[in-house]
Amino acid sequence: MADPFVIAGTTLKSRLFVGTAGYPNQQVLLDCLEASGAEIVTVSIRRISLEGYAESLVDLLGGRYRLLPNTAGCATVRDAVLTAELAREALDTIWLKLELIGDRETLYPDVEQLVRAAEELVRKGFMVLPYCNEDPVTCQKLADVGCAAVMPLGSLIGSGMGIANPAAIELICARSPVPVVLDAGIGTASDAALAMELGCDAVLANTAIAKSHDPLRMAAAMRAGVEGGRLARLAGRIPKRRFAEPSSPQLGLVGT
Amino acid sequence: MTLMRINGVDEEIAATTVAELLVARGVDPAARFLAIAVNGAVVRRAEWPSKELLPGDTVEIVRPLQGG
Hints:
The complex is a heterodimer.
Chain A: E1 5-7, E2 10-12, E3 16-19, H1 26-36, E4 40-47, H2 57-61, E5 66-69, H3 77-91, E6 95-98, H4 111-123, E7 127-132, H5 136-144, E8 151-152, H6 166-175, E9 181-183, H7 189-197, E10 202-205, H8 207-210, H9 215-235
Parallel strand pairs in A: 3-4, 3-10, 4-5, 6-7, 7-8, 9-10
Antiparallel strand pairs in A: 1-2
Chain B: E1 2-6, E2 9-13, H1 18-24, E3 35-38, E4 41-43, E5 58-66
Parallel strand pairs in B: 1-5
Antiparallel strand pairs in B: 1-2, 3-4, 3-5
């Protein structure tokens, strides 16, 4: 059943974005990306080692996946903008996952600087996908300055705590004029399914796959979770009731 | 020799352009996916041979790595 996902003017088949960090080894990463069905994979931008430069695995991914560079670790508008510009030069892409961190311990976004950086990067021609708080007002501001999508957190990065505030995520999805990609906090496939059922357009997962006991199986599970959640969202869940509603016919009961 | 700050470290390098700097540090200027900024501004690949480096310049040499 065709259900294309359009983001930043690009039509995608997969609604699962996958991060490339923290896998046991490069082959597992490659196998997981394949099993996940992801078309968009995230990468970071880092200083090269001047002691021994060699092409990295990421160099090999470019032809097979759309690479989405991030500004992970940046704490100022200036650093985020420079990292974005370096990413554009290195990868020849205007797509950017904008991260602007306000606190090293929780990795919570610095909303004030995030909106300023997003505005500047949109002006410079980037397709900005900002990692942001699960806050409808912040998401609206990011859409207003021209972001191509918003990426609210389910819970803290790498925490595996799932979606801590489903009501907020549902509200963001209901009101957002741009696609919503649930980013951060996914712990297992049911978290991804829930994100999709709440109305998210896509999910980004990294640690949940990379640090799973069996990353390959979890990559497949995450794909199935996203697909199942999306189908359920389109189908529509039944209303919740306080009492039982028999599903079998009431007529013709034996013994009546 | 020129004193510059390269990827966060002060170094004396015998290089007067970005391209020379890469060669001096054993980095192939033709390597894919490299990006360079001097004093906070990206220097496009086509400008690496001509972009002059001056004492005190701050140079960032980056590439994509695994990330989330």
